[in-house]
């Protein structure tokens, strides 16, 4: 018999704001709001101290990205207009968002969890599901160890719940925020889940919640007790079935793990062995095409990489690789071609070639925004082979 599943959901507390507090510990305990543009970055004064922007001074149409719990106590939450937030918390400190920093801490906390429980499903920058089923420790100890690992690695707190499935784990991690630790079982559904508003279930959006409320179904418990035929009549067979299942805490979705690729590469074996000089043009065309395909793969998967490598297999089947590491990660075909070309100049080309490959490693998540530093990638700072 399979052991009962143990699924954790972990969500970082006030994530972006908490990362900012690592950088500006003097703001701990204060209402802090993250949002807005570069203009609100703290200014260094001549005496070395920092002047932070006050929320009250904000003018514009930006929205709050997130806020510290102190700001939330004043009614300021994610997605609220900044001007409205300023009326509620005029003395709050306003900081611009620094997505590179948040991505960095996101990778760090996930890596810390992976040292204890490697079966992880990424759900975004600050949340993951973790399958604890096959880990040899009780749920409470595991949850404590995971929280401690996250705190040791990042200095940040998170909230975690362990439950028989993703649905309950996700709801559970919010029950005791911040710095929460919640254990939920099917036996707890009636007492802990049924009193919650229907919208707390991931998958019941504002529109569905409204339609449910119009039928007098405000809480999860209301849905659980509702007549199934009535649900079917209003929501159709499949959504009604799903509603009844989730209201009873039933969810069979697996934790979907996929490990981050270490590198992305393309290689091709030639129709006939090619010679570097005599087939120069053909070889060059294939080489460029490989670089273009790697660049497409990178951009489709959302990565850039710093280590560019080539692989050659000679007519006698011997294989060589060369790579070099650039000062900054790249993802465009021309830059990959230049770097790979530099690698190619470091191998012997007397023998005919049967295979050519191009690889980009040292991957990092692409930001989607051009590098703000305007860095021009130049060849190479550091060469390894
Ligand atoms: N975020 C955003 N826009 C939103 C909500 C959130 O950009 N409307 C960002 C900022 C958050 C991060 O995503 O820091 C994670 O979202 P959460 O909903 O988990 O919110 P927090 O981590 O900030 O707070 P909590 O402690 O409630 O999880
Ligand atoms: Mg969070």
Automatic annotation (TrEMBL):
Binding sites annotated in the UniProt record for Mg(2+): 11, 126
Marked site (Substrate discrimination) residue numbers: 16
MF terms in GO: damaged DNA binding; DNA-directed DNA polymerase activity; magnesium ion binding
Enzyme Commission numbers on file: 2.7.7.7
A GO cellular component entry from the record: cytosol
Domain UmuC: 7-205
Coarse class of the protein's main subcellular location: cytoplasm
Cited Gene3D superfamilies: 3.30.70.270, 3.40.1170.60, 5' to 3' exonuclease, C-terminal subdomain, DNA polymerase, Y-family, little finger domain
Listed GO biological process terms: DNA repair; DNA-templated DNA replication; error-prone translesion synthesis; SOS response
Active site: 127
Cofactor(s) annotated in UniProt: Mg(2+)
Subcellular location: Cytoplasm
Alphabetic keyword roster: Cytoplasm, DNA damage, DNA repair, DNA replication, DNA-binding, DNA-directed DNA polymerase, Magnesium, Metal-binding, Mutator protein, Nucleotidyltransferase, Transferase
Comment on bound cofactor: Binds 2 magnesium ions per subunit.
Assembly, per entry: Monomer.
Family: Belongs to the DNA polymerase type-Y family.
Name of the molecule in the record: DNA polymerase IV
């Amino acid at each position: 018999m399979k052991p009962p599943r143990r699924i954790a959901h972990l969500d970082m507390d006030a994530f972006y704001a908490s990362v900012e507090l690592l950088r500006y510990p003097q703001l701990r305990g204060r209402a802090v709001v993250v949002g807005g543009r570069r203009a609100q970055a703290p200014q260094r004064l001549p005496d070395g101290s920092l002047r932070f922007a006050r929320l009250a001074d904000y003018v514009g149409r930006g929205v709050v990205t997130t806020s510290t719990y102190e700001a939330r106590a004043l009614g300021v939450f994610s997605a609220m207009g900044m001007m409205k937030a300023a009326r509620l918390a005029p003395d709050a400190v306003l900081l611009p968002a620094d997505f590179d920093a948040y991505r960095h801490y996101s990778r760090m906390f996930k890596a810390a969890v992976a040292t204890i429980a490697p079966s992880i499903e990424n759900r975004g920058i600050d949340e993951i599901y973790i399958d604890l089923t096959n880990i040899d420790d009780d749920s409470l100890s595991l949850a404590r160890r995971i929280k401690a690992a996250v705190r040791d690695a990042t200095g940040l707190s998170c909230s975690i719940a362990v439950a028989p499935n993703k649905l309950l784990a996700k709801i559970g991690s919010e029950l005791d925020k911040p710095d929460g630790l919640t254990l939920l079982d099917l036996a707890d559904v009636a007492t802990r889940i049924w009193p919650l508003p229907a919208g707390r279930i991931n998958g019941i959006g504002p529109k569905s919640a409204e339609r449910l409320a119009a039928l007098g179904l405000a809480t999860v418990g209301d849905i659980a007790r509702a007549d199934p035929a009535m649900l079917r009549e209003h929501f159709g067979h499949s959504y009604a079935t799903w509603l009844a299942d989730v209201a009873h805490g039933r969810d069979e979705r697996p934790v979907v793990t996929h490990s981050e690729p270490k590198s992305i590469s393309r290689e091709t074996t030639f129709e006939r062995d090619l010679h570097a000089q005599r087939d120069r043009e053909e070889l060059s065309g294939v080489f460029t095409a490989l670089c273009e395909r790697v660049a497409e793969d990178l951009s489709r998967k959302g990565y850039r990489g710093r280590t560019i490598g080539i692989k050659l297999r000679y007519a006698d089947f011997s294989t060589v690789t060369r790579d070099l590491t650039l000062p900054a990660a790249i993802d465009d075909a021309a830059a990959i071609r230049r770097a790979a070309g530099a690698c190619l100049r470091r191998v012997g080309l007397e023998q005919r070639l049967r295979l050519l490959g191009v690889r980009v490693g040292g991957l990092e998540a692409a930001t989607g925004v051009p590098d703000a530093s305007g860095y021009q990638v130049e060849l190479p700072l550091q060469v390894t082979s």
